[in-house]
Amino acid sequence: MYLVEHFYSIQGEGRYTGTPSLFIRLGGCNMKCEGFGCSETAPDGVEVQGCDTVYAVNKEHFSQNWIPITKSSELLNILDLYELPRHVDIVLTGGEPLIYANDEIFIEFLNTLHENGHRICFETNGSLGVDFQKYPVYKECIFALSVKLSNSNEPLKKRVNGDIIYSLATNSKEAFFKFSIDAESITLGLEEEINDILIHSPLTQVYCMPVGGSKQEVEKNTEPLIEFCKAKGYNFSDRLHIRIWDQNKGV
Ligand code: SF4
What pLDDT digit, counting tens, does each position of 179-216 carry? Predict the structure, then answer.
C-alpha cells in the first residue's frame, strides 16, 4: 500500500460538501483518465497526462514521492498529527482506494476507524468490487461513486461494471453517484451515457460536478452544468476546494 498525502480540510464535493474531513490519499489507480486533460511534471522531469490527481495515479513517475505502508498503525498514526474533533469524517481517496480493498492492513485500519466511531467515506471510480461478506466493515462505509464517463477516455468495459455498481450501492451504508462533467460533453449525448450507468442503481442520487484541475476550468464548466442539472433534476456539486484553493494541493 502507498500513502500519497493526508490533510484535514472540508469536503469539497458531493453530498457532504462542507463537512470537516480528514483526507487520506492512497497511491495507484486502475485507470488513467487522460481525457480530463490535466498534466503535471513528475519528480523525474516527465510531463504526465491524466486527471487532477495524476500525482496519486501514475506509479511509474510519481511513486518516489509515495510512502509505503506496512502496518495499519502507520495509517492510524496520521490521526494523531491533527487536532481532530472526535468521530471526524475520514475520506479515503486516491488514485483509487479500492485497489487495496482486500489488503489486510487496510481492512484492519477500516475496522479500527469504524470501532472508534468515524464515518468512513470512499471516493471511488466504482469499477472495483469489495467483498461485503468477508469484510463487513464495508457495509458501514459511504461510497461516492464517481463512475467515469466517456470524457475520461477510458474504455466503457473498464469504467462501467453494472454488477459492481449495484453491489456497492446496495450493500453499503450509503452511496451516491458523482460525475465530473465538462461543458462540451453536455451537448454530446451525455444524458444517455449517464442513464446507462444509473440503470444499474436507479434509486441512487446523482451529483454532477464541473471538470477541472484549476479554478478557471471549474468556473468555465459551472454554468452550463448548472443548466444541465436543472433540466435533468440532478444535484449540482461544486468543487469547493478548487474554487477556494485553486491548484494548491493538500488543502
Ligand atoms: S479513476 Fe479517478 S483517480 Fe483514477 S485516473 Fe480516473 S479520475 Fe484519476
Answer: 988 888 887 778 899 999 999 999 999 999 998 878 99
Indicate the top mutation candidate among 53, 66, 123 to test ligand 1's pocket, ranked by most ligand atoms within 8 A of CB.
Answer: 53
Beta carbon of 211 within 6 Å of any ligand 1 atom: no
The reply to whether CATH 3.20.20.70 applies to domain 2-245 is yes
Those residues whose C-beta lies under 8 Å from the C-beta of residue 97, and which sit 6 or more positions away, are 26, 122, 123, 124
Find out whether 144 and 124 touch, Cβ atoms under 8 Å: yes
Q: Cβ(32) to ligand 1 under 6 A?
A: yes
Which ligand 1 atom is nearest residue 94's CA?
3
pLDDT for position 250? 63
Q: Is the CB of 249 under 6 A from ligand 1?
A: no
Kind of pairing between the strands at 67-68 and 2-10: antiparallel
3-state helix, strand, coil split of the chain in percent (to 5) is: 40, 20, 40
What percentage of the chain exceeds 70 in pLDDT?
99
Q: Which of 59-63, 78-82, 247-251 has the lowest mean pLDDT?
A: 247-251
CA–CA dist 117, 133 (Å, integer)? 21
- The pLDDT tens digits for 103-153 are 999 999 999 999 999 999 999 999 999 999 999 999 999 999 999 999 899
